[in-house]
Amino acid sequence: MGEDLDITVNEGPLFEGVYFTIIPSPSFKGDYEQKIFRELTNHGAEHVALNPRTGCISNMQKTTHIISATSDFADYSAALEKMKHVVKPSWVETCVEKGKTTNPRQFSPDPCMIFSDIVLTCADIPEGDVEAIQGGLIALGGLCSGPLTKTVTHIVALSMDNEMCSMAKKKNLKCKIVLPHWFDDCLKLKRKIDERPYLLPDPELLRKDPSPMKHNLVSYDDIQGATDPSPREVPDNSTSKDERTKIDVFKGKKIMISADLDIRDRLLKTLEHLVKSGGGSIVNRLDRATVYICKYRDSYDFASAYKSGKEIGNLSWLYYLNAHNTWTSPTKRLLHYPMPRHGIPGFEDMRISISNYTGEARIYLESLVNAAGGQFTKTMKQENTHLITAHMNSEKCEAAREWNIHIVNHLWLEESYAKCEMQTMTNPRYTTFPSRTNLGEVIGQTQIDLGAIQDQLGENPQLLLETNMMDVDQDESEPVLDDGGPMDPPSPAATATRRQKLKKSKTDNVTRTPAAPRFVEGKENETPSTTGSRRAKERAISHLHDAAKDIAQYEKESKRVGGVTHGRPRSSDGPKTKEVDSKKRQTPDDEDDDEDEEPLEDVVRKKGAKRAKTTVVKEKRPPIGERLMVTKYEKWLEKPQQEAADRNKLRNLGIHITESPADCTILCAPRIVRTRKFVTALATAPRVVSTDWLDSCLRNNKIPAPKAHLLLDRIEEGRLGIKIDQTLERAKKNNRKLLRGWQIFCTEGVTGGWETYKDIIEANGGMCNLYKGRSSMTASKRSFTRETQEDKSVADNQGEDEGDTLYLISGEGKKDKELWSKFKELAKKEDMVPRIVKGDWLLHVAMNQKVVDTGKNNLD
């Protein structure tokens, strides 16, 4: 293959016919951007400006070349789809230097084109190897050159004893002479790794010492600001005020914050301030948004946002944009994209440890393991299933070999997460560890595979028809037991409620599909695609066939006045409604104060009339004044339509039904009950009212004073040994810190499910661990800080506990009892006193908001 860099020779101006747009980037230092601009315009190119309001390309049709240092800009996918040249700024400089335009392919900023900056020639390599090297090079963005020219960046050779290498050395050319092993390892990993261990004349790769190079410093730029998918605090903005005046990162963006982030009003106001200061706005309807921020990727709104081509990211991504004041795609960094709610299938039983990654890289991999659904372990034991390492030199690697534990590099974890599917470990790229190389240098370069996301949506064709149960208001399905019987069964109103929240307006426009992309120092262990798309389509067709009846019914219902979500209820033989003029059903532009939408249509039906008239009442809802948690409300049991209508009425009064105990301001129940909702909500010290208060709200269409309807239940108070007013007084002092610092273990066999007890413990500031008797489990004594008045108040309610008692909440089944001896051994090993108790112990603590030990709940 000869040199194929030059494709045209210009007789007129060098860049005649070139219409270019420059994408601003932090990599443009000083006046470099202006220099590129002048080079282009001085040689006949015409500039196409960015839209000043949105920061996007204003005229993509006219543009022929996009100058960008990275593929990470909003219009990149659209540019590829329209066959526009996206090139690095070096393309301009090379063309000017050579006096003719060069192949733009070599200057692609696509991160998949790992050899895009490389022009390679081969010296004393066998002909068959030369063809293989050239084929791989061209496939990954590089260019080949037969003779040695000034543009050559790499010479592949086995030694310096050849004419080409001698010539390069004699003329002092700025090219690297590497062993072919470097190219092989790059191809295996599909990552461009450091050339230094492979450089001739004295390659470190051939030395006897297999350890990684000590001077090979690793930079973690690719994971900066993307190590935690669920940040709890807003990071400081790292840019100066002068820099912020140049680019408004949220300029022209309309951002919707999803309810699944469980953000309180105070943080929401902070986010709104950040977005507005960056030139954007917060909206509460998806059809108005251009950007959707959520935590999980399995909701109806996520699917709708994806199908309509909106930018979708998580809170970490939003913080990153604000901190760096530079727009970046949420798919570039894995932990900037919404997580799978239940992890990646296959990871749930994995115990994964990490070796030879430090600092941010270690935090990033730990977060990625947890997001994938696996269990991260700081130390490694025989129970571990996988070890992820940057190279093979560590105590953990030696132990993993001895214990027959899978050893892989981080690419296996990253690509499993990116492709939404656990990757096979038989792929050699996941078990490749080049000598003298630290793979930490290529961490974070894997991007979210949007094709895999689309395949998942294809496997769930009803996702846009049915709502995600996790996003709707519903009662608990695994509640705490009361008097030996289950409480609060699943609410059948869940689906109906969510459907009533969906809006008919503008849903017909949500059909576009975005274009698919082009493609610690110290001792570490205690002891010495296309076929995929085709398969997804086949699975989707199968699912659609199974769901044909439901889809047909959905299409039938959508033709009714108001559609599926706003259509009036009717019997199967009821009269048909007359179509209402579309102007009467338009959605108002008023933005709501909550995630709920506009009130439902008030249906006016005349008995015996041939045709029913529909009147649409649209009023702006009042701001939320109370967040109500309801449990055991009999009027809603098995009555989903009644529940949905009542919830809507309450929202019109400024009352939002919440499922989050931390947000609850009013707790409503018919009596004192031991349900998950009731017990967890007590920790927030809400006002506790009887269901009479709720009846009064719905009956009189106004909010009565909670003091007039306080819950009084002397019978249950006496039976349970609590005083509800004293409980709330203690809860206010505890401030959800009653069990702060407590590590409580729980078996799977406890009545009501261990997740219930986990919620109660966490609501009170503690930590709950599922106990299965594994020897690798560790525990630590509690430390108390009693410096402030609040700390002293909490300490008063923690009883006489000195922090040396280790609790196990257990069932009384055979499997649970078999774990007791192992638990006692764990406590003894940690120099703690074991206590094995019934679930009633925790319920008594939570409902008293005080640690009281009566002894009657002990099991051992």
Automatic annotation (TrEMBL):
Compositionally skewed regions (Basic and acidic residues) per UniProt: 230-243, 570-588, 784-794
**Gene3D superfamilies per the record?**
BRCT domain (3.40.50.10190)
Sorted alphabetically, which InterPro entries does this protein's record hold? BRCT_dom, BRCT_dom_sf, CellCycle_DNARepair_Reg
Record-level GO BP terms: DNA double-strand break attachment to nuclear envelope; double-strand break repair
Q: What Pfam family is a match for this entry? A: PTCB-BRCT
Region: Disordered; residue ranges are 221-243, 475-538, 557-616, 781-804
One of the record's GO cellular component terms: nucleus
| Record field: compositional bias (Acidic residues) | 589-601
Fetch the PANTHER family from UniProt.
REGULATOR OF TY1 TRANSPOSITION PROTEIN 107 (PTHR47667)
Name under which the protein is recorded: BRCT domain-containing protein
Q: What is the lineage of its organism?
A: Eukaryota, Fungi, Dikarya, Ascomycota, Pezizomycotina
